[in-house]
Amino acid sequence: MKLWKKSLVFGLVMTSMITLSACGGAQDNGSSSNPSGSDNQSSAANEGNKAEKVKIVFAQGNDQTPATKKLIDAFHAKHPNIEVELRDFPNNSTQMHDQYVTILGGQSSEIDVMNLDVVWPAEFAQAGFLLPLDRFIQEDKIDLSNYLQGGIDAGYFAGQQWALPRYNNAGLLYYRKDLVKSPPKTWDELIQQANELKGQGGTKYGYVYQAKQYEGLVVNFTELAAAYGGQVYDDKGNVAINSANTIKGLNKLIEISKSGFVPTDIKTFTELETRNAFIEGAAVFARHWPALYAQAIDPKVSKIADKVGIAPLPAGDVKSAAALGGWFAAINKYSKHPREAWEFLKFMVGPEGQKIIAIDSTQTPTYLPLFDDPDVQKASPLFANREFVEGLSAAVPRPITPLYAKISDIIQVEVSKAIAGEQTAEQAVQNMEQKIKAAK
Questions:
Q1: In sequence order, which ranges of 90-180 are alpha helices (DSSP H)?
Q2: pLDDT band, very low/low/confident/very high, at 345 (cuts 50, 70, 90)
Q3: Mode of pairing for the β-strands spanning 283-288 and 308-311
Q4: Is the model's pLDDT at 7 over the cut of 60?
Q5: Is pTM beyond 0.85 here?
Q6: What is the pLDDT of residues 295-313, one digit of tens each?
């Protein structure tokens, strides 16, 4: 069975448990620019071939790889009447966010298509900055089941699809293959193995993760809460964080944080400290993003290059859950060329555009059939790895809300107090419920 089909089966099981899950689809060679797999060009494309040349502006963070240029060149070859001008924004997401808000808040049409961080679509949609994509998706018969479901969900808000995923990633469990016979399937198994294996093979710690009071702590909380069936908001947008399931997930995070197998200074750990501990050979297990893999297997920087294994994050009572990361494509509501903007967005998130990104920048595609493409598999060992595909399929978005920045701050503070022993999981969840409901 092909990788993406296994991922589809895995994702369908997850979907039956909770709406934030994964699924798959089919595509033979990824050469079509239409994600629906149809040979028919959209009406917008046909109109564009007859019209005068139109210029649209695409905004994203500066790309240090050749991928974006190749993508735009490939689009121009198929759409000679649509010129795409690239406008680089800061790679710092906070600065990019603020510049977008200034431009879009002034109802400017100076950009047409834009890259959005995974946690921005709801905020930008609520502010009236984005053009809904549903009509275009329906007209061009885009099959969204071909995409990572967590990515589709993160671009959906208030009953409409506002953004589509360009590339996504999700948390993974890294482990020492020379020490671990079989990676843990559950968090309880991880705790047992981390206790037993700590100190073996030159290690100091059984497990490392991101526990500092910053966004990384929200990510880890999201994963543990979702693994035990907890959530911040329900599918109707109501605050639902105060539940036995969320409390159980947070208690498991507290148990891990207070254990003897994590560093005593675990509350200072970000992705950097986690990375260093793992590639220096100091940890048996580590929770990190896919970007660590290339460094971990590189003998020039890693002391354990030939000993690295990856697996989906362990499951709780309900499922394995990995927080979704990545970037999305959306259209400025004030664009003067929405049809042409859609053609470019559709190309970027379609098989041809995503294949270019996967090969030339090694960003993880969100169009699942590409994981069977030999060229894509050759671009990164991860893309041919069944465990990686299953881990990606477990991706769930962080809270989908236009108030995300405020909600993140609330979660950071209350969870940090809980893992420091300053309050119980029950108290933390009650505080989060009250503060999230009061947030405006």
A1: 93-105, 121-126, 134-139, 149-154
A2: very high
A3: unpaired
A4: no
A5: no
A6: 999 999 999 999 999 999 9
pLDDT for 279 equals 98
Task: Return the pLDDT at 51.
Answer: 57
User: What's the length of the chain?
Assistant: 440
Task: Indicate the average pLDDT of the chain.
Answer: 89
Residue corresponding to tokens 């035990």: 228
pLDDT digits (tens, 9 = 90+) for 130-189: 999 999 999 999 999 999 999 999 999 999 999 999 999 999 999 999 999 999 999 999
Give whole-number Cα distances, 76 to 44, 176, 344, 356, in Å: 15, 46, 9, 14
Mention every residue, 6+ apart, whose C-beta is less than 8 A from residue 300: none
Which of 282, 148, 118, 125 has the alpha carbon at shortest distance from 215? 118
309-328 per-position pLDDT tens digit = 999 999 999 999 999 999 99
Q: String of b and e for 319-338 (b: at least 16 CB within 10 Å)? A: bbbbbbbbbbbbbbbbbebb
DSSP code per residue over 60-82? EEPP-SSHHHHHHHHHHHH-TTE
- The DSSP element (H or E) to which 270 belongs, if any, is none
List the one residue out of 351, 361, 349 whose CA is nearest residue 58: 349
Tell me the three state secondary structure of residue 188.
helix
**Cα gap 225→227, rounded to integer Å:** 5
Residue 343 CA from chain centroid, whole number? 24
Report which residue type is found at 277: A
Q: What is residue 385's DSSP assignment? A: -
Q: What is the DSSP letter of 364?
A: P
Q: Can you read off the two tokens belonging to residue 124? A: 């930008």
Residue 148, token pair as written in the block? 């990572």
**CA 340, 361, 94, 342: dihedral to nearest 10 degrees?**
10
Q: How far is CA 400 from the centre of its chain?
A: 13
